[in-house]
């Protein structure tokens, strides 16, 4: 694109957006069951809402959803790619570590990968599910067509411990599984809350009969809500961990660079994003724990730095980040909406994550890159940058690695290195090699 002095730059557009006054809001719901503690939206329309076509837009307003012709073309390219399906040794499944799951150390974060973007995260006695997808195919037609799971779901909804919090990043079929939501509501009843993007709540109520109004909380970007312990919380029946741990969990909805569609006629009608979580124990001798679930996102060079500034803990950064590393091919279609492994490493650095786990690969074939390539590329770039990489080991003795991938069903108990340790790792990497050059080289190989 050539330089046109009459056109504002993206940075200028963002600044203009931030300062633009908006008329009263009709979309945002009150939250009688939750306390808005920071970044309240008050009574303005979100500035990322477009009145003219009644849709949401990205932080970088120049990034739009792919046109229908490109969407049709990409589906045929994915079909034509005829992906090689890895064997069990190459893409492993582990039996759930029930002992760890039922007796978590409440002061550290523990997570179990359920495939694609579904994580079961445990901290401070809270059980959190991200984008729970348990179905066999991700498409509008659950049993008939669409990408089939490469590996079975490691555990069923009924097998999971009681769930406190479910977050759904956006309405694409590989992230919002309606049957999973129905099952989770059936099993956990009113003890579970769902946090969802703007305009998803009405759609869920239409489709999930048992979902109560108080149970589903709609959020806008940068809005934070405090999720406190339920007074009637039932201790986990097998728990022998530190059951006395208690505190509050703050949930923040964060922007991502993506889009939404559930049927042919609702493109960008619902919002999309990621979620940040801050667990603050009542006992102040224990540290806060912060984790971040990115949902689906493309990379741009200011969004994640803004998340670092506005969300990350000023003292501790982000303890754990769940970042997408797959569905990046082909780049002509996916570059604006899905990070590749190189960009995912850059996101981890931008947000100051001490430990990241890659996801959005190895479960449903929704793109053209080979199924195992995200792991290989991640490994390569981390080796080049001399950052720690670990695969298929529950944890090591010395602390958490900078960026990992885990097996389907694997439970990872974070060791939580000190901030100083992590700073040394990053400093060492930057000293030895020119990070930007490495990232650029890796990206060229990927394209
Ligand atoms: Zn998506
Ligand atoms: Zn996705």
Automatic annotation (TrEMBL):
Ranges where the Metallo-beta-lactamase domain occurs: 127-361
SUPFAM superfamilies: Metallo-hydrolase/oxidoreductase
CC per GO annotation: cytoplasm
Top-rank lineage group of the source organism: Eukaryota
InterPro entries: Metallo-B-lactamas, RibonucZ/Hydroxyglut_hydro
Name the UniProt record assigns to this protein: N-acyl phosphatidylethanolamine phospholipase D
Source organism of this protein record: Acrasis kona
